[in-house]
## 1
Amino acid sequence: MTTTYDERVDALARTVSNWGRWGPDDELGTLNLIDGEKRLQAAGCVRSGTVISLALELRPDQPQAPGSGRLNPQHVMTETGSDAAARGGVVGYSDDVLAMSIHAATHWDALSHVFHRGLMYNARPCTEVTSSGARFNDIRPVAGRLVTRGVLVDVARQLGVESLAPDHEVTVAELEAALAGQRVDLLSGDALLVRTGHLGRIAASGDWGAFTEADGRLPLEPGIGADFLPWLHEAGVAAIACDNWAVEHLGPSTGGRLPVHEVGIVHMGLVLGEVFQLDALAAACAADGRYDFLLAAGPLPVRGGVGGPVNPLAVR
Amino acid sequence: MTTTYDERVDALARTVSNWGRWGPDDELGTLNLIDGEKRLQAAGCVRSGTVISLALELRPDQPQAPGSGRLNPQHVMTETGSDAAARGGVVGYSDDVLAMSIHAATHWDALSHVFHRGLMYNARPCTEVTSSGARFNDIRPVAGRLVTRGVLVDVARQLGVESLAPDHEVTVAELEAALAGQRVDLLSGDALLVRTGHLGRIAASGDWGAFTEADGRLPLEPGIGADFLPWLHEAGVAAIACDNWAVEHLGPSTGGRLPVHEVGIVHMGLVLGEVFQLDALAAACAADGRYDFLLAAGPLPVRGGVGGPVNPLAVR
Amino acid sequence: MTTTYDERVDALARTVSNWGRWGPDDELGTLNLIDGEKRLQAAGCVRSGTVISLALELRPDQPQAPGSGRLNPQHVMTETGSDAAARGGVVGYSDDVLAMSIHAATHWDALSHVFHRGLMYNARPCTEVTSSGARFNDIRPVAGRLVTRGVLVDVARQLGVESLAPDHEVTVAELEAALAGQRVDLLSGDALLVRTGHLGRIAASGDWGAFTEADGRLPLEPGIGADFLPWLHEAGVAAIACDNWAVEHLGPSTGGRLPVHEVGIVHMGLVLGEVFQLDALAAACAADGRYDFLLAAGPLPVRGGVGGPVNPLAVR
Amino acid sequence: MTTTYDERVDALARTVSNWGRWGPDDELGTLNLIDGEKRLQAAGCVRSGTVISLALELRPDQPQAPGSGRLNPQHVMTETGSDAAARGGVVGYSDDVLAMSIHAATHWDALSHVFHRGLMYNARPCTEVTSSGARFNDIRPVAGRLVTRGVLVDVARQLGVESLAPDHEVTVAELEAALAGQRVDLLSGDALLVRTGHLGRIAASGDWGAFTEADGRLPLEPGIGADFLPWLHEAGVAAIACDNWAVEHLGPSTGGRLPVHEVGIVHMGLVLGEVFQLDALAAACAADGRYDFLLAAGPLPVRGGVGGPVNPLAVR
């Protein structure tokens, strides 16, 4: 007896659902798993006082490829030093404007970013997300909450490669082996950062057309699969971020569906971080063998935003 | 014998200049004063594990007033739940775009934001800031650096008012008295947050026209004065932020000049944070008497940006 | 026996409906009434060879007031002469970007701009207008069509005032009297331009807050009323434009409803032009007594646009 | 004895200069050659009453290629029919925003678009074009002026090809032969439209990377050469537009310089129209042998604009 994709997704959704778990008005989802104790633990992970930014530089030519439907960061000047020089005088100043798709570069998805069977997290109808933005589940609650202990799992390094092959779906067994290899525990309330090496590989190659969904085609990328969700649910992970386009593995076998989004964001209320640059952090972790740190990663509090740009900072 | 404003500014600039102090290629300015030890100290300030965001919500109707020349955050949707509902089907998603003047809401000024006598920080010509952005001193170096111990000085509360009068220039003596009253030390490498109550007062009144420079007029606002700069220089403050439009006091007596910008940004390389929302933090500090915390406030790393939007997080 | 507003609108809609009149696939509406003969007639109206632009200058501070929900034209430079001067060299160039709400300044409404009982012109469901734009009835068909004979009716002048009072609803009798007073015939296929003097009055006063819908309040403006629609239908008017915000009279008595939009755009397929600057044209017409001209007013062909910016040219 | 490129350009500039010709304050350049008589003549060219738009559809994926530095037209919705359907109720509306590089699609260059030896048209310093836009020679004067007789010269057809080869520089002799072949005279004050077939060829191929300057490389495109300028000067052409990216031929031999821009725009004050879609017009002209028409092509009056988007209408 076979089941369809949608039947499996529905079953998975029932298994990991957090709807109602933190009350009918909750908009934080798994971020509820972060508390004060957790952050004291995070502060205790700061041992050398170094900081590493996990944000991709904001520039107009990456990381979205033409046809992705997303606008790369556009930066325009409204006052310049050239103007000041031409004008003369003792003082001058410069000013600028930034325009970008919120999901173009390093960002967190809000819990209003994905819908399943007409609903978003905590049983709210998708029609609450209109041209005026998200009336519920927007990114603002995330902004003042996302400081916790972060754990990097460098799957690529543990598997002995610079980056995972594009068709590689990371398995739970691989992740557990990597955790063991790194000798670090994943604890409830942690933010889990999974390194595939994919973003660094694409940046080195310059082939951004292979990074994002372009011209209607889904990307082929290494990432986690749907079977991760019960495991993350059990582990009490508060947020997960990857150095790829969509956190989850995408390829021919997934047929254009994104189960981690459909079930993770919608039913678990799991906050996903995408296009995180993890290579510098991975190098630092490998150098001293410490894979946990304080992660301060509150996004910009965009009213109605279905995502939020962020400069995630790992303090270790 | 009298001196002109410009002569006084030049003398002040000589007193506090950091040009060359950290080498001819330096783009960090006073952020050099933050080191690993400092951040260990900052981590030690985390005692309850609570987080407070100091960012103003990003919305289209504040805080800039018409005529300020700056664009308030514009949020537009490129995919919605309404569309998903109209289209039908099992899954759907939403997406959005953000456009804003970088200096419109909560932000750090980059060291390329102000010029004095044709130069910016570390003797670089202002003509390095063109329509293509800042070739030097852009906001990127700040992005991975600005985690340190933060100290809130609640001048308004120490003076027994909800907010300082718009024509109040905070004096060094007032700040020192407030520090003493709060029983907290300001140390080298700290980020100093000065609360005037101004932003909260404006927000409560809804009169944003009184907050920003509008229609060519400078705002009237409480803030620090130029005599703060030698004191900040001596104290080794790494960055300063206020709950007003321009950090410094502006009013008829300043005649449209901004000495803290001209000397602080250009000659000291002092990083200024503007439109910080400090009221919730102040309430928390007043409640338990602890005025220091870990401040994680790395802005978005905008290539060529002469400022950077930021969601500053106080972890305490 | 009384009728409700909606019942009257439904009855009016039945009276003037053009659904199906030009086939089930039609997207032109009343622009179908313009043919080659009509344009020959329009060319015959060119007697002095003068041109008058009816477009409002595109600038960031008008005509929308804060709270209207529409973005005034924002113009930013991406290359400047200052940059060229700073760079030196023999040649240089400048470049720029324009961003605006399509309905912010002088524009035509597309037939996808308004919906009534879930439908737009020619019985198409409103759900064809998504975040991707209008799949039907967008502005493109208008772009290559809108050249015809224009007739200005200067109601303000005919009534002996500089501008109509804000609470003045222009009646059909007034319009007919004005036509007679101007000794000009309105013919099938014409574009009718109705001058109220309102835009000029607002511009002179600088009080743009009184011009547009702001902070949820509808404007109070002189304009035509719903009883115009059968008359326009009978006359075969191809398009109508006014020097106000919404063509139609808005005020307390209209209760926030816009019957000319609901019935005119949706059921008649009548193309409405808004924020047309008619004062210079009116002065020229008054000077020589000629009130007809060739109107060339094709908007920018925005794919999916529910309106189109236009520089309407009266050639006379 | 040889001359350098710059010496030849300087000599050419002296030959065709119009600086001062229409007074020291002139901002119209060659558009001064259009007068009322000219437009009466243009109206006389309307014989069938058909209209053809010469504008490229505004869409986000063309005609600029990534790396051109120009933003293709971005269209976003701020209210939709989906929203109206989700909300319910009798009436609804839609609204939208357009953002684009002014020079991205069909446009006229303003006389502030190019500088030569630090000056723009009529001896104004290039430093008058700052981040605030052009203080002189902006696009506004063009908006109410550009209605005249248009003449299409279909060079491709006259040479018996669908489109000119990318390395084809159109010669004056070819243009004169084409005029003769088409049996049409070019008169003072006319707008000259030169068809190369290039835009249509690129559109058919979908290879927009071959159309615009991308990644620092100039395009290879058919167009006119610098020797056209004395001829245009002599003929009294008021404006010239082509179905290519830059009006003029670009290729290895031009070495990245654009003499028609440097001399034509700066010294002649010649208004250039770029990315005009001429194929439908050419087909109509070929069908009935009439190559002149009324051209109504006033751009949007952007304050400070160094160019203007336009929907040029040929009425014939």
## 2
Amino acid sequence: MDPEAQPQVTWRPGDRITSAADYRASLRGRDLAVHLMGERISEPLDHPIVAPSVNAMAATYELAEDDPQLASAESDLIHAPVNRFLHVTGSADDVVAQNRMQRRLGQMTGTCFQRCVGMDAINSLFSLTYDVDQGTHSGYHARFTSWLAEVQRQNLVIGGAMTDPKGDRSKSPTQQHDPDLFVRVVERRSDGVVVRGAKVHQTGAVNSHWMLVMPTMRLAESDRDYAVVVAVPVGAPGLTYVYGRQASDTRAMSQQGIDVGNACFAGQEVTVIFDDVFVPTEHVFMDGEWQYAADLVERFTSYHRRSYVCKTGVGDVIIGAAAQAAEYHGVAGASHVKDKIVEMVHLNETIYGSGLASSFESFQRPAGNFENNGLLANICKHNVTRFPYEIGRLAQDLAGGLLVTLPGEEEFDDPEVGPLLDKYLSTGTEIPVEDRRRILRLIENMTMGRNAVGYLTESLHGAGSPQAQRVQIARQADLSDKKAMARRLAGIPDHH
Amino acid sequence: MDPEAQPQVTWRPGDRITSAADYRASLRGRDLAVHLMGERISEPLDHPIVAPSVNAMAATYELAEDDPQLASAESDLIHAPVNRFLHVTGSADDVVAQNRMQRRLGQMTGTCFQRCVGMDAINSLFSLTYDVDQGTHSGYHARFTSWLAEVQRQNLVIGGAMTDPKGDRSKSPTQQHDPDLFVRVVERRSDGVVVRGAKVHQTGAVNSHWMLVMPTMRLAESDRDYAVVVAVPVGAPGLTYVYGRQASDTRAMSQQGIDVGNACFAGQEVTVIFDDVFVPTEHVFMDGEWQYAADLVERFTSYHRRSYVCKTGVGDVIIGAAAQAAEYHGVAGASHVKDKIVEMVHLNETIYGSGLASSFESFQRPAGNFENNGLLANICKHNVTRFPYEIGRLAQDLAGGLLVTLPGEEEFDDPEVGPLLDKYLSTGTEIPVEDRRRILRLIENMTMGRNAVGYLTESLHGAGSPQAQRVQIARQADLSDKKAMARRLAGIPDHH
Amino acid sequence: MDPEAQPQVTWRPGDRITSAADYRASLRGRDLAVHLMGERISEPLDHPIVAPSVNAMAATYELAEDDPQLASAESDLIHAPVNRFLHVTGSADDVVAQNRMQRRLGQMTGTCFQRCVGMDAINSLFSLTYDVDQGTHSGYHARFTSWLAEVQRQNLVIGGAMTDPKGDRSKSPTQQHDPDLFVRVVERRSDGVVVRGAKVHQTGAVNSHWMLVMPTMRLAESDRDYAVVVAVPVGAPGLTYVYGRQASDTRAMSQQGIDVGNACFAGQEVTVIFDDVFVPTEHVFMDGEWQYAADLVERFTSYHRRSYVCKTGVGDVIIGAAAQAAEYHGVAGASHVKDKIVEMVHLNETIYGSGLASSFESFQRPAGNFENNGLLANICKHNVTRFPYEIGRLAQDLAGGLLVTLPGEEEFDDPEVGPLLDKYLSTGTEIPVEDRRRILRLIENMTMGRNAVGYLTESLHGAGSPQAQRVQIARQADLSDKKAMARRLAGIPDHH
Amino acid sequence: MDPEAQPQVTWRPGDRITSAADYRASLRGRDLAVHLMGERISEPLDHPIVAPSVNAMAATYELAEDDPQLASAESDLIHAPVNRFLHVTGSADDVVAQNRMQRRLGQMTGTCFQRCVGMDAINSLFSLTYDVDQGTHSGYHARFTSWLAEVQRQNLVIGGAMTDPKGDRSKSPTQQHDPDLFVRVVERRSDGVVVRGAKVHQTGAVNSHWMLVMPTMRLAESDRDYAVVVAVPVGAPGLTYVYGRQASDTRAMSQQGIDVGNACFAGQEVTVIFDDVFVPTEHVFMDGEWQYAADLVERFTSYHRRSYVCKTGVGDVIIGAAAQAAEYHGVAGASHVKDKIVEMVHLNETIYGSGLASSFESFQRPAGNFENNGLLANICKHNVTRFPYEIGRLAQDLAGGLLVTLPGEEEFDDPEVGPLLDKYLSTGTEIPVEDRRRILRLIENMTMGRNAVGYLTESLHGAGSPQAQRVQIARQADLSDKKAMARRLAGIPDHH
């Protein structure tokens, strides 16, 4: 649990990243323009607010080392094992394996480990560039796979960048008062394109090596310049990163760390501004094919909405924390306590079931890769927008009022006040009061602190807000079939 | 939709049943002691209350003919295709295929088609008799497979008989005031055993050819005589069947049938009394091995709780009916109507997802067959105890108040009153008022009439009542793992 | 519990009704055109399907005798005590007293006692006719109170008739393909008007003496002929009544009655057709004042949506039945059983709280009578559209599977089968099996049988379907105030 | 909204507090031992983390000035108007008025204003000391009213101190490993008593003038020393206050304050340690009467559980904030947005209804004061443990993902980054980006920041955790009545 205690690292740019230590090394010296709390922070991974998010991403490397079967796969592109987050799915089992890996990482970190967007983006683009090629002979697919093969070789982190600011939501990109409210190509050169705009809500951007920039919604012909997919190095000139401020984030600056709740791990949300960023042709995977934007978004959200089973791993942690708190409080045997834990498990596994079923029900795209069932993916995500809130409420129920009245660590460390607090918070058992404090601070962290962002609000809005799922469910539900079934059983003839 | 319009049938006892018509023929002439409405009914399938349940069972034969890939499978026992309801699962895909078939049959019938209990029972016993043999050299497995092979050859219906009356629920079988409140062996002869007792809530018993009698719960050593598994022909001497009376069941006696709602299909629930029924040794698959009773029940309920995805097929019908009603009423475009349909679909697919995931996550038993994931099966069934009620409520919402104030068919047929009703219930469109009536009566049938039994109450209590699932979820949730995850992230050392 | 065992009755038309026996007598000899099951039934109160609804209405007379403080009040119109259902509210306490009486009658009957619509209609019209008079000098208020005084003197039942068939819901009355789809004045004579049309979903119509016909929604100037309020005797020439067919209604025709569930009481829903019914001027309380239609509907639904606290009385019965069933089954002490009962009570009292609060928060109209708070009335009714379904689900949970597999009373009475059933359904206690059967049939009656109509579907649609409440809640919520509060606390200046 | 901009204050100890400014002055110079963030803070009201809680309490004085009818009442003790928080209820209307005042203060502050515990404590003790006197001639009632009269005269704040640490929850006070885990009398002197122990979760303690110390649960005879009720000045020697650390509390230390969300108001939760505090006899209102402890707790929780309608005032703010955010985002007209706001209002008013009904249904105690209905109070509070979480979830839904990815105010103020952020977060309307930020930070504050403590977790645990309400609901539901109603309707004779 001391992620900074790393061996000597000799990694250099271009080398394959072979460990979490290499990964950390790879983030140094990039001179990114990252703004946080009024400062441009030179090495984000050294900043106490950023570091926990680097740790969470690093866990994706650690798991690949510790459990390669779970977190790596054989790539058809480079004919070598690659981190599963960089793998193009070759079977339904591969799609399912993503879910198992996501749950495990949720359990390990208790937060968002930020690498799923890239995984889902490469799988969407793998099939989409292939399909675009069929119609347009664009050559995008070859470009894309060539780029991806190199990323696999170096074992890099890809972030996906989809969500534009959108301005006035009732207007299309070209109708906005400012044409930059969606990312667009502002110049086409012989050797590449120049893009401008911003992407908001970017998960793990600063911890990535590449960003895959994609359009965020269905486009019309007049939006042609907005139909752009490019890969951009995170350190490319013209990029500015503004770090979001979240609940209780400054707790990570405390020394001892009990009150942080989860001392090692947190998510990361950044606003990224593209101030005329040049992208060479070899990294342009769509430019102007507006007809395919909706399809790309649908494929991506299909993968990504089922990726939210990661929250069941986080759910395992919060259920465990609540059960542990009840045990520390001496009430683990009460029937209502046991019943609440069953309810939490039931809700958590219901999410898992719908996500897993979506992955199992995968089908093969003409490009050869496998894609999960879209309807069930939306069902999964829609459950994710509801159940974590109820799980969180039940965790707070089991935690008790001390969750929000607990004195801070300085008071417990105070020679005069500390012993009094220890005296009065003792349950007379061998459970140290510090352990009770730690578990309560973890539950606070996950339900109203820094990781509530990932467990609750991101569960609501990530991969599309609830209404986006409802729109998709309506489209995919095949109501005419269902109505025909009903008419048949009701004995209504087919005269309509 | 006229299931009785059948070709000439030449089936004779012992022949393979090759069609729904054969199946109907096989039910005739058995002289069962079936009691209903104060009568012993000679040919149940001719009774208007029973006939719809025969039709539902017959659909399992029809589907095997119409879609053999879905509803049949190659048997390793007889090396020939068999109805999937008689098949021992040879892969996870086989387990999944059961779910797909169940949903389809739910869509076709809008009710309980009654054949899942037998399917789940043979799969449980296939592995359990094998495991019992390992410990006891009982030879049960060979006996069981030999019997099953013959049933497969003849393509018969097996009903599973598990639920004893239980008497005082706080007492074990031997502690009851009457030792017969659980089925037991009352005599052991050289050539077989004699069993006495009753089984309640028997689904489709009268429509079956064989009953597989099994214990209903964990047994103690003193309950040895109750640890009995036998196969009994439905027509065996000593068996009495008492048909249950259900909501609106007499509507099936009307002539025109609009008010029945679902004119063709219904479920069947029977109380079966075993008045010293003799079972030859070759049909005895457990006798006294009380230690295995709990395991058998757990295997059976694991299969069976995920079999409740059949209700998503029924759910498809009710969703379709509600959508159709809204369309007939002219309100299909209202945003709240569309939103309610999305909610219904969401709940229905959530059930499907958890069931399907359970089946996909199957593992192989030493006997060779595959069994689904127990935790997810309980999750599936637990959702089934909740969501159909909400789906039903939403269907009633979309149906409107006419659902419960609609005049009866005699009034619509009345030369004086009928035209007035048609005048006042017209919406001015081409939709005949009769179609509106039919769809409303179908929704009534499924939410408060005869098939509400299957869609609602059986969803609650079949395969174990809600609390039974909660007990299993508590046992299978692996809380100690979850607590360890939480302690690790909270920084709590492993001193406990 | 033998409501037919009545003393000698000497009541004659025009006499004051002084007892339930008088009330029954008053229903005889009216030669109403009531159609049910293909017959015109001469004396509805003698028909086994209708009789239970007469009993429920009669309970409103019995309660006024047995507990006059609860169910009667001093009328300012006739300066004598009147049945509270005929009373114009003189204080907030009067409005609250209606709720207490409604709950009590729900407890007494376990169903809809059908007299609230009239009570809410007279209170709405009392103030509305007054307000119309202020603008139009119509004299409606005097006419109305004069008529009402006479009804009070005779202690008659008033039914309210509001819901028109509506045809195509996207069209106004005059836009329909048939102008009769809303009740309207088709002829104006010197001494009165002639009305034509129909009213659907009429609760208790056949059991009433008068119907107050009112428009069902907001009207436009072109709908002037539809803006009509009249009082019509139930036996007026030109009226046809078509009785609705409901779940399990024919059970009431069985002799012994155990399987009916609730042998004495049920609701009544009728379609009423007005085939050119003449109404003398003295009974016309609105004719053409289309501007007031929306206001009348709003006042009526405000009263009536809070009248649905009657369902908490029915809820008391179903909670009691579930608790009794659990006790009979021997599981009353299980913690999950106790917890489910608490949940049922919680939901039931939540409904009661919102209804009661609405009544307590009454305000005085210029006419002098008191009207409850509209927002809270909508809240109350909206809870009623949800909670009874969950209460019903929990009742079915506690009832167990026997609820839907229980044999019929003929089988229990059968000399051969009956003793076997009694043997196997015994719990070894002193509880007779018949008592268990009775309580299960009552729960069946209330959750999927005849009184499920009143407890569930009518809870959904009566006094307006769920969406109607949401529209009203949106209008009455005063969002601009709430937004201002938020802006103030967020420190947003008032520049908008 | 600048609560510190106060006129010159001349208040001196002993003077009547006549304004919020006087109140602030009264908190100065008390030299309390308050510990927070490793320091003993000399003047809490000057500490940026404490100040917002002082402002919230001060609002109770402001409202009494601005709307005396709502927030003050005529006292029978001093025959003068007093702040309603100090008033002994003289009618059901008085009890209802408390609810109206609480909602208004919730709307004004968006948080817990901390003065209800004292109000509910004085009303409970007013009747309880009277009842104790009847049995014991203790003279407590006279002592209590004498003290209260003086508090009314000076217009002071009373905090109620009930919740002991409790140690091992399966043990009584005397069975604990440390006898101090419940507050107790450790010494009885001729002129008073000495108490020792601690009270946790003390709301507003540091902002009060007096604490009313009460036992926390039912006591046995052996717990006699724990049956103690005393009034203690907040500045009494021997008292130590340890301030709790809550989510995002340090945001209050920022200068500009946009990111605080609610710049002015917050709650306060403190652990209070009683290190042998002397209490003179005149302030002892119970000492040893263990039989009355349960009754006192029940009266207090009855008042207090209905006091949680304050959360509907906070709910008004969060609903307003969500509606405002939707408007700023340009989506206020979307049907799903409007529907979610209706749902929030519905849930909020459902809470209000149950609380209000409880108050309206008040009864008079022999002491003369009025007490609300206990069952409905528990219903109200139980809804409070559920609905604010769903309201909060819906508010986050309407707020959008920006809620948790928004950059901090330093970045918006940065001359380089700020304009970029303003450019990209513009919606092209006249809505300043700063207003959007402010409303989002308010929603963050209320759902996962500092005031989430009051709106969510305190809603769960204050006045007793959910299970405490369920226990009371079970006791107050009168199941035997309900069972009798069911048996009667089922036709079950009274042989049991």
## 3
Amino acid sequence: MKKKAVFYHAGCPVCVSAEANVAKSLDHQTFDVETVHLGKDKSRIQEAERAGVKSVPALVIDGAPFHINFGASLADLKK
Amino acid sequence: MKKKAVFYHAGCPVCVSAEANVAKSLDHQTFDVETVHLGKDKSRIQEAERAGVKSVPALVIDGAPFHINFGASLADLKK
């Protein structure tokens, strides 16, 4: 079974670059990679928080959160 | 020809986790992935800086730097 990787972003320039370079560079034979725009899909923010996501862009690989650079804090997206 | 991805780290816990999860999850059919321990191999710090690396762990994918979480600043590694 494939492992799950979720790329959370908010459309920021850093996010777009991280998606194109990092998320798309994952081994798609090992991972199902989902991309979630938290600015548009606010219902997924809680799920991201539970996975340990503090800022976007972030990549949750097999449950472990990795923050890439620093884009926008989740607190700001809730406003 | 394969693209080049370099994972720079300094042996910190965040670095080890990022290497195991992010660097090793890249598509190795597309990328030659090199891991560089900047704490041990200080001669590579300049190269990392030129690529735009400000902190480790960082992944330079095809020349573009992506910082993962925040571990140790390059300035601290020079001490």
